[in-house]
């Protein structure tokens, strides 16, 4: 095995590395000798590297590296002036002081004539007390009565005596103004929602997961229907969550304004809006109904069901 010896000593290396600044502010290389000596005791590379805080060769400390301070720069929505700060070779560059304004939506018409929500008469109440004491009291009462009759018709609960040592969740009314595509008011909507955040895991609910269809799946279905010249039908299920049956025993306070007996509470039979497991129960209900009618669930997309008939 031959011995390999490497020479690590560099002596008297001549190079053209002096930096000069020409008349327009560009750095050029001039021919001059710079001796670089490197041994095992000291490293000297001061002739090659210049600190950002040091002046380049050929530039005095009084010369500026930036354009004149009164130069105007137009960016975005307005023009700003470079600050009147002297910059020399021994100072760091000044940060930009350009104003960063948010994007303005000037093409939107937010006048009261087109957006009825600016009128105090058309404000959605946040509580039952606001709804029954506001200028649209009769409309909100009618909406609540319609929702209450729907709950009774679907047998959502039954009144029972108030149990002891049992978690009784509360409920609230949620109010919404329904509008058309141009913003005209068409309906007053009230919905009774359970306060699901007061439920206890393992007692009032266990599983809450339910699949949701992906947007890419919808686009694929639309493309297939368009390619095969098929018709697309859309069905909106009214009070969808009220069709699922609860497996847990959940007690709920009577809705505000519709109490019949203060000593009674609602024993829920159906999954009301606001419960943590409502969406899962609705998904299980849809799955059982579709599979019972001959539909097969896709293995790649759990929200897609297929059914093949003889005419296909």
Helical residue percent band = 10-25%
Average of pLDDT: 75
Instruction: Note poorly predicted spans.
Output: 1-19, 34-59, 63-80, 112-120
What string gives the helices and strands in order? EEEEEEHHEEEEHEEHEE
Q: How many E strands?
A: 14
What is the secondary structure topology, with strand pairs?
Blueprint lengths: L9 E4 L2 E6 L5 E7 L2 E3 L33 E4 L2 E4 L46 H6 L3 H17 L3 E5 L6 E2 L1 E9 L5 E10 L20 H13 L23 E2 L11 E5 L9 H15 L3 E2 L7 E2 L6
Parallel strand pairs: 8-11
Antiparallel strand pairs: 1-4, 2-3, 5-6, 7-12, 9-10, 11-12, 13-14
Provide tags for this entry:
alpha+beta; Reverse transcriptase Ty1/copia-type domain-containing protein
What does this structure look like?
The chain has 312 residues and is of the alpha+beta class. Helices cover 16% and strands 21% of the residues. It is built from four helices and 14 strands. Strands 7-12-11-8 form a four-stranded mixed beta sheet, with no helix packed on it. The protein has a two-stranded antiparallel ribbon with strand order 1-4. A hairpin with a 5-residue loop joins strand 9 and strand 10. The longest helix has 17 residues. 10% of the residues are buried. The N terminus is likely disordered.
């Amino acid at each position: 095995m031959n011995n390999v010896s490497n020479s690590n000593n560099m002596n008297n290396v001549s190079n053209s590395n002096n930096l000069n600044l020409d008349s327009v502010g560009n750095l050029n290389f001039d021919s001059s000798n710079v001796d670089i000596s490197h041994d095992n005791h000291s490293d000297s590379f001061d002739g090659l590297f210049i600190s950002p805080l040091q002046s380049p060769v050929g530039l005095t400390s009084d010369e500026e590296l930036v354009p004149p301070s009164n130069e105007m720069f137009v960016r975005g929505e307005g023009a700003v002036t470079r600050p009147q700060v002297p910059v020399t070779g021994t100072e760091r560059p000044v940060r930009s002081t350009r104003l960063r304004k948010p994007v303005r939506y000037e093409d939107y018409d937010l006048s009261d004539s087109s957006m009825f929500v600016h009128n105090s008469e058309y404000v959605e109440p946040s509580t039952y007390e606001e709804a029954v004491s506001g200028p649209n009291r009769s409309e909100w009462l009618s909406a609540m009565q319609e929702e209450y009759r729907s709950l009774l018709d679907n047998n959502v609960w039954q009144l029972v005596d108030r149990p002891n040592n049992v978690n009784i969740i509360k409920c609230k009314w949620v109010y919404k103004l329904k509008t058309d595509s141009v913003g005209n008011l068409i309906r007053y909507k009230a919905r009774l929602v359970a306060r699901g955040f007061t439920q206890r895991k393992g007692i009032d609910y266990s599983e809450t997961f339910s699949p949701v269809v992906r947007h890419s799946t919808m686009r694929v279905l639309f493309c297939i229907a368009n390619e095969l010249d098929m018709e697309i039908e859309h069905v909106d299920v009214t009070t969808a969550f009220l069709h699922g049956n609860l497996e847990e025993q959940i007690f709920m306070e009577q809705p505000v304004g519709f109490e019949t007996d203060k000593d009674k509470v609602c024993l829920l039979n159906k999954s009301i809006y606001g419960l943590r497991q409502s969406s899962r129960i609705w998904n299980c209900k849809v799955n059982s109904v579709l599979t019972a009618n001959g539909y097969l669930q896709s293995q790649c997309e759990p929200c897609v069901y297929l059914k093949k008939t003889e005419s296909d």
